[in-house]
Task: inverse folding
């Protein structure tokens, strides 16, 4: 009987391994990105999963003869000799002298947009998004989401090294966790349920089990407005940690994770970083400022009149970002002690001044990318806070099991992955950093 043993047969090589195959005949598989026919020879640029490989056709290289069916986006297996050359700047480059091309599939039609330029020139964002399955074949576009992979991977790796357990919380929830009106309601076999606004209730419950937990998963916000920083579905990188001494432990964990992520991008995503001219921040230590001090700074130094003394508007965040960069030489700034009235029911009030909370936001280049803080862990205190917020604790019986049966002092945070990617790459719109954005006007592709 035939059996499958898990041995992966590799009949192709990666571009990064070309130096070790110098002078040898190997194969690669990919799409034809571009063909440049010259007199007597041709350049065929093959796009593999992460690289563009220059292959050269010349009749003298082998018996293989040019096939007129070859066209852009055809899927091919190219076999040829790896050769090294030196470019104008004196750098060693590798290319392939073609000995044969097997056509694996041919496109049914020509592409509706040009994707084989360095970047997608003069194409509106809405068209780029409409055509995501092919616009992302452009090397610069696809690099965005390799960078995003690096961010999520760095977050996961760092937390696993620090004793965190990865969890999976349900996305169909019995209650909204963040309050407010931006919750999607769902008819669940005749019962009203909600799409998860965050994994908040579950990550807290699981602190009682594993001590330190994290999740990287989609969350849903029924934002009714169309802004450049809000999505209706985004990826939340959450962590929750127990037995903390103060909420500074959480900010330290985030700072450590960000340092790790930035280093990972610089070392393992170098090509993408260069292609996108990504400005990777140097993080030594992140400055911290209290909410009311930040308000005072905005009013006194920047002469800006806030519309709301309980939160920041986007202009205020931008001003704080400018201040952090110019005066504190930091791309990041933690703002702590937000007013109690603006933070959710699970946030711990500051015992020294209960008008404010043991909470924080992290701003990155003038944009909020994280919210976090210490949580209420005492049962009676949590029930009382829910009642004060106009909630019915009976509806949160399973959530309150944590508090009822012994909750460690704990806290955590949520990072918006698309927002972090957006400002890392200098984009103006969060949709540019979202593979398949969901906003008030878009549910396709
Ligand atoms: P919060 O609601 O502030 O906190 O969200 C955390 C982070 O998620 C990102 N974010 C968004 N990104 C894109 N589109 C949106 N509509 C959107 N809304 C929020 C932001 C924000 O800083 N449970 C808490 C976190 C915690 O305390 O652990 C929470 O979800 O980057």
Result:
């Amino acid at each position: 009987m035939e059996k499958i043993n898990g041995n992966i047969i590799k009949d192709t090589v990666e571009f990064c391994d070309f130096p070790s195959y110098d002078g040898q005949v190997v194969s690669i598989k990919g799409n034809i990105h571009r063909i440049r026919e010259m007199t007597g020879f041709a350049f065929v640029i093959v796009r593999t999963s992460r690289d563009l490989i220059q292959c050269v056709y010349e009749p003298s290289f082998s018996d293989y003869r040019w096939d007129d069916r070859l066209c852009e986006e055809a899927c091919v297996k190219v076999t040829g000799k790896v050769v090294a050359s030196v470019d104008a700047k004196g750098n060693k480059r590798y290319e392939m002298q073609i000995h044969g091309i097997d056509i694996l599939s041919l496109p049914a039609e020509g592409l509706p947009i040009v994707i084989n330029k360095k970047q997608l020139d003069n194409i509106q964002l809405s068209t780029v998004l409409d055509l995501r399955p092919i616009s992302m074949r452009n090397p610069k576009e696809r690099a965005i989401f390799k960078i995003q992979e690096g961010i999520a991977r760095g977050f996961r790796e760092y937390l696993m090294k620090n004793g965190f357990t990865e969890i999976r919380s349900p996305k169909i929830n019995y209650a909204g966790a963040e309050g407010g009106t931006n919750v999607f309601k769902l008819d669940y076999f005749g019962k009203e349920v909600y799409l998860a606004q965050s994994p908040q209730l579950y990550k807290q419950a699981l602190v009682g089990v594993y001590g330190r937990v994290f999740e990287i998963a989609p969350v849903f916000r029924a934002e009714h407005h169309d802004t450049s920083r809000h999505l209706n579905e985004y990826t939340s990188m959450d962590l929750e940690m127990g037995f903390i001494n103060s909420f500074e432990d959480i900010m330290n964990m985030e700072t450590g994770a960000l340092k790790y992520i930035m280093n990972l991008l610089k070392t393992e995503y170098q090509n993408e970083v260069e292609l996108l001219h990504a400005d990777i921040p140097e993080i030594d230590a992140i400055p911290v400022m209290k909410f009311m001090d930040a308000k005072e700074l905005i009013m006194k130094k920047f002469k800006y009149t806030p519309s709301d003394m309980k939160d920041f508007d986007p202009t205020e965040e931008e001003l704080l970002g400018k201040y952090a960069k110019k005066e504190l030489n930091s791309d990041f700034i933690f703002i702590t002690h937000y007013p109690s009235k603006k933070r959710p029911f699970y946030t711990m009030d500051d015992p020294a001044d209960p008008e404010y909370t043991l909470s924080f936001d992290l701003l990155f280049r003038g944009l909020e990318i994280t919210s976090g803080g210490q949580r209420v862990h005492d049962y009676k205190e949590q029930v009382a806070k829910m009642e004060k917020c106009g909630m019915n604790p009976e509806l949160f019986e399973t959530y309150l099991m944590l508090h009822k049966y012994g909750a460690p002092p704990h806290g955590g945070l949520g990072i918006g992955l698309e927002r972090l990617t957006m400002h890392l790459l200098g984009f103006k719109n969060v949709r540019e950093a979202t593979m398949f954005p969901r906003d008030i006007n878009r549910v396709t592709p």
Remarks:
- The domain at 15-105 is CATH 2.40.50.140 (OB fold (Dihydrolipoamide Acetyltransferase, E2P)).
